[in-house]
Amino acid sequence: MKNIALVVGATGITGSALSQQLIDKGWTTYGLARNPSEDITGLQPVVANLLDLDSLKLALQNIAPTHIYITTWMRQDSELENIRVNSLMIRNLLDVLSPKKSVQHVALVTGLKHYLGPFEAYAKEGFLPETPFREEQPRLDIDNFYYAQEDEVYAAAARDGFTWSIHRPHTVIGKAVGNLMNLGTTLAIYASICKATGKPFQWPGSEAQWNGLSDVTDAEVLAAHLIWASTTEQAFNEAFNVVNGDFFRWKWLWKKIGDSFGLEVKGYNGTMHPLEQQMQQDSEVWKKIATENGLKEMDLNQLASPWHTDLDLGRPIEVNTDMSKSRKLGFLVFKNTEDSFYELFAKLRLDRLIP
């Protein structure tokens, strides 16, 4: 049977990289989004609202995917609302496709909040999880929409007989516009503003993150991991961590990034300097930078997500991930993290998104 992929969230960092790799491998690839992009040649757009059953039924009436890749979520004001909305999205999608009996595998992308807890709970619930994170670590006794999403996949798999995989990346580094969680591009925008205004490239986060070991996940690595797990029998019905495979300390990488933009670099100085505060008055500054340099996007909020970058860089513990499970089963893709950032910056310049 020909592989037919449905990428849910095809305009995001992960979804766009995955869609390109699937198309390059000869898969028929549909990209579901509320506002599909036309930037990827060969991607067949599907316009639908995952919270609207009628919208989904209409959009998917002539599509019978063999593989579903869920790479999106909707941020809500509370974790209980995150649970309600994000589990409903998955339930609606799998319920609509269930009568077709075409689905062979569902891959769900979540993340390290599986081990850390939701955004507002970082280190506030009286625990500091042990690192490096391993897949066998039990769920936390706390509300978490990732758990609800997993449970929807498990229930539908038991009903319809498809296999599944869960993918838990660390911070994903890749190119996308309008993404809620975009650390790499946020740092590029911040560095560009520092360059234009003469401000130092000030570390925004915690001492623990500055000094501790960390890792990230390149979008291309995550895409390869999704395809591997969804087509490799020994990887079926398993949850996996997925990161680049190297470790770094931010006090080293921060200087590398700052130097690459020609900036004065300032590290941790005893206090945190959140980017959300540093950049809250920069909308007009960015418009001026964009106008002077002929950039494509003048809206700072479409490129930068300081709130999410602050959460990542402000954690009170070092955060890193064990990849042994995937390695033992044969996934050997590796990416140097310094290259991940430099390649992203090059793409952003090529696409006229930063100077």
List keywords for this structure.
globular, 355 residues, 14% strand, alpha/beta, 13 strands, seven-stranded parallel sheet
Describe it for me?
- Residues 67-355 form the PRISE-like Rossmann-fold domain.
- With 355 residues, the protein is of the alpha/beta class.
- Helices cover 41% and strands 14% of the residues.
- The chain is built from 14 helices and 13 strands.
- The chain has helices at residues 13-24, 53-59, 79-97, 113-116, 145-160, 183-197, 207-211, 219-231, 250-260, 275-278, 283-293, 306-313, 324-328, 337-350; strands at 4-8, 28-33, 44-47, 67-70, 105-109, 163-169, 172-173, 201-202, 213-214, 217-218, 238-242, 248-249, 265-266.
- Strands 3-2-1-4-5-6-11 form a seven-stranded parallel beta sheet, with helices on both faces. The protein has a two-stranded parallel sheet with strand order 7-10.
- α1 crosses α8 (219-231) and α3 (79-97) packs parallel to α5.
- The longest helix is centred in the N-terminal third of the chain and has 19 residues, at 79-97.
- The mean pLDDT is 94.
